[in-house]
């Protein structure tokens, strides 16, 4: 319970109608959860506008309503607070409601198209190896110290987000690391949070079904860096052309990392294998349990961010060798002489990175079979590109289903085939059933070859017509490989 006037202190109201010296018992942006004497924030969402529910929640005798447009009729006993942007106001109100938990943690956000989950998770693991309690907010799973909390979004809504951060504070966490999605930045889900630092990995085509243009997508990422305070750090990938753009207007202390050029944190691959890499970080060698240039970038970012967060460089280097890959990120399985790799790669750039890494390791003589699909109700434009890049870098290609959602899997596969030439089609199979596609790829693979199962990674489901059915690529790969022995 908080006084309404205490909550209002967190925002900049344009207009207040009603009494502010009253108690508020809850904070909600979902009209179905609005309570008597609670506060309801009317947010304009992607599919619905909370403003249209104002009469309903007002008649339920909520204590206060925050909105951008005042209703035509005012309900007696309800305080109406008009703001310029109710989504942004919700972030600040949620922070105030939970006593500003982000200010009691060293909170580091990671954004970019690829590498967010790995970088944020490894920073969390690094903090724990350093002996600290820490929290994690990620696509795969949230953690409050060592307690796993299921994740439904890359970045939760402001109320859930601050509730998780408050739980971390209560549990005695010193640090928190979180993925900051472009949706979260654009929708002001991180408004009101105090960050110790921000990390930018890279920017390639993704989420254009929501942002519509790459420029909008890039500006959503940049908004995160624009909000960082002067005492925070901003660490960006100097090898990505969007890195410098992220730093243009930030007030934070600016740092860079790179594999190709001079930077504050310089990484270099000395030797690579399917099960690890010998890496040089700022002139010192370290053996890590990760493979590929994309992971070398992630680890260089982790190295830099850990030091900027306050850890000692030599201790960080020692702990780098103890870190292990994140579930579903270049996760390897072997059986019957075949190596299968499960990876979350679901963008053209991520797919290219993984396939190029495999080819670099096994050489021109080894065969690669790729099993890949594209999600339904998402960016249609990347579908033929995904197929093109897969065919270009694979000896055999199987197009299959990947979370078709409300679309027909066959229609998605047809869109992917538009990117294939007649030559590409001669080495391509279309197997809609993902389980059968994985089995076919593994059973047809020659000893010494690699099968890449791309797109879903850690996800334990297939989403079809609004229903999530249990399906785990890792389980399917393990079962198929067992049949070879």
Can I get a quick summary?
The chain is 34% helix and 24% strand. The protein is of the alpha/beta class.
Q: Can you offer a commentary on this structure?
A:
34% of the residues lie in helices and 24% in strands. It contains 17 helices and 26 strands. The strands form five sheets. It has an eleven-stranded mixed sheet with strand order 11-10-9-12-8-13-14-15-16-17-18, with helices on both faces. Strands 19-20-24-21-22-23 form a six-stranded mixed sheet, with helices on both faces. Strands 2-7-6-5-4 form a five-stranded mixed sheet.
**Structural class of the helices, strands and pairings?**
alpha/beta
**Helix run count:** 17
Main sheet summary: 11 strands, mixed
For the largest sheet, list the strands in their spatial order.
11-10-9-12-8-13-14-15-16-17-18
SS strand fraction = 15-25%
Low-confidence runs of at least 5 consecutive residues: none
Mean pLDDT: 93
Find the count of extended strands (DSSP E, 2+ residues). Answer: 26
Principal-axis shape equals globular
Radius of gyration: 24 Å
Overall helicity: 25-40%
Terminal CA distance reads 62 Å
């Amino acid at each position: 319970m908080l006084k309404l006037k205490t909550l209002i202190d967190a925002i900049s109201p344009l207009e207040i109608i009603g009494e502010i010296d009253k108690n508020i018992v809850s904070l909600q942006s979902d009209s179905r959860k609005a309570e008597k004497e609670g506060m309801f924030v009317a947010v304009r969402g992607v599919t619905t506008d909370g403003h249209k529910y104002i009469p309903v929640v007002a008649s339920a005798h909520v204590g206060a309503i925050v909105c951008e447009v005042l209703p035509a009729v005012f309900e007696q006993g309800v305080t109406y607070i008009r703001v310029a942007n109710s989504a942004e106001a919700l972030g600040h109100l949620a922070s105030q409601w939970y006593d500003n938990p982000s200010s009691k943690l060293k909170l580091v956000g990671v954004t970019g198209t690829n590498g967010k989950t790995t970088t944020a998770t490894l920073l969390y693991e690094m903090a724990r190896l350093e002996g600290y309690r820490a929290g994690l907010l990620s696509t795969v799973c949230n953690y409050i110290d060592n307690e796993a909390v299921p994740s439904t979004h890359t970045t939760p809504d402001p109320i859930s987000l601050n509730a998780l951060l408050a739980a971390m504070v209560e549990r005695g966490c010193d640090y928190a690391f979180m993925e900051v999605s472009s949706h979260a930045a654009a929708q002001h889900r991180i408004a009101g949070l105090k960050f110790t630092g921000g990390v930018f990995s890279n920017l390639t085509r993704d989420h254009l079904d929501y942002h519509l243009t790459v420029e909008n997508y890039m500006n959503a990422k940049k908004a995160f860096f624009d909000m960082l305070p002067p005492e925070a750090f901003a660490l960006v990938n100097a090898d990505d052309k969007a890195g410098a753009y992220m730093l243009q207007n930030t007030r934070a202390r600016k740092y860079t990392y790179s594999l190709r050029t001079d930077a504050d944190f310089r990484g270099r691959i000395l030797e690579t294998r399917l099960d690890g890499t010998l890496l040089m970080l700022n002139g010192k060698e370290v053996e890590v349990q990760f493979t590929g240039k994309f992971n070398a970038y992630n680890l260089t970012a982790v190295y830099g961010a850990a030091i900027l967060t306050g850890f000692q460089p030599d201790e960080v280097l020692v702990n780098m060798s103890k870190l292990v890959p994140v579930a579903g990120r270049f996760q390897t399985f072997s059986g019957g002489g075949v190596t299968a790799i499960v990876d979350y790669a679901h963008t053209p750039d991520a797919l290219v990175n993984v396939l190029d890494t495999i080819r670099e390791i096994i050489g021109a003589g080894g065969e690669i079979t790729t099993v890949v699909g594209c999600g339904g109700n998402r960016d249609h434009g990347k579908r033929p590109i995904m197929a093109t890049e897969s065919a270009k870098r694979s000896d055999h290609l199987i197009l299959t289903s990947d979370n078709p959602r409300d679309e027909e899997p066959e229609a998605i596969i047809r869109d992917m085939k538009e990117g294939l030439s007649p030559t590409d089609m001669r080495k391509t199979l279309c197997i809609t059933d993902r389980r059968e596609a994985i089995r076919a790829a593994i059973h047809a693979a020659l000893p010494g070859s690699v099968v890449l199962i791309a797109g879903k990674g850690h996800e334990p489901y297939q989403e079809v017509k609004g229903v999530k059915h249990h399906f785990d690529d890792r389980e399917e790969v393990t079962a198929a490989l067992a049949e070879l022995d």
